[in-house]
């Protein structure tokens, strides 16, 4: 008997599964199946599948249900996975302990359970963690055919942005020159290089840059990746007028770097500008900042205005895809 499934290339499977799990439509009653390089992920409600994922009917076998954390606690279990590191976000210590125990007792592969203990802070963009299970904060995360090593205690990384990163990377041509102004461990830089682009990643966090270099090696793209530790405003002179595409993923502070972005932009350049804005004016502040910095030297065209995710009550993480064309 056929059931509705999202069909994606096998290398995109884990990131797609995470995106579907975020909206609660993964059908746990049937097996995820691969055939001819395609992965078929059963879904419980095709109407709730996010736009862009093809839904087909497929004869997915029924599964022997594994034990999940939800079955072992009396509240809704919310968690994220980075390889065998499980991240939870519980303020109540009793709930945190119960959920950590349930994760260990479930059939999830796990070596560490971490509970968020602070907000992201400082120019290094790191947070504190409470280690509930295990000892390590290092993880190996797989996303759309790429593999990323990282230490959550020392660098910033969000698995929730996998779909958004893939959206951007899908636009990159094999002859492009791409510069990620706040690169972290390389979740934009590495897949850009895998598509054939010359990719430069800059970050002020020295540990993140060390992981970026390691991840370039892991993914076989070290010859196309340049990793630079420093403030992008201070190294911009080396790449002035160089970039065909800029990634500005530094919400809350990206507006401080728009003049640097204009310096880096080539004759034609696409800028992916990320921000956190209130719901009553999601895109106005970012567009105004870029126009003020770029015009009249560049003609500014907004290609896309996109809400990435909810960030806080009445606030959203948004992105502007903006094309700069030298006037």
Automatic annotation (TrEMBL):
Highest taxon of the lineage: Archaea
Residues of the SAM-dependent methyltransferase TRM5/TYW2-type domain: 79-326
GO BP terms, alphabetized: tRNA N1-guanine methylation
Gene3D superfamilies, A to Z: 3.30.70.2580, Met-10+ protein-like domains (3.30.300.110), Vaccinia Virus protein VP39 (3.40.50.150)
InterPro entries to which the protein is assigned, alphabetical: MeTrfase_TRM5/TYW2 (IPR030382), SAM-dependent_MTases_sf (IPR029063), TRM5-TYW2-like_MTfase (IPR056743), TRM5/TYW2-like_N (IPR056744), Trm5a/b_N (IPR040601)
Listed transmembrane segments: none
CDD domains found in the cross-reference section: AdoMet_MTases
Molecular function, one GO term: tRNA methyltransferase activity
A cellular component term, taken from the record's GO annotations: cytoplasm
Annotated Pfam families: TRM5-TYW2_MTfase, Trm5_N, TYW2_N_2
Keywords, sorted A to Z: Cytoplasm, Methyltransferase, S-adenosyl-L-methionine, Transferase, tRNA processing
Protein name per UniProt: Methyltransferase domain-containing protein
Originating species: Halovenus carboxidivorans
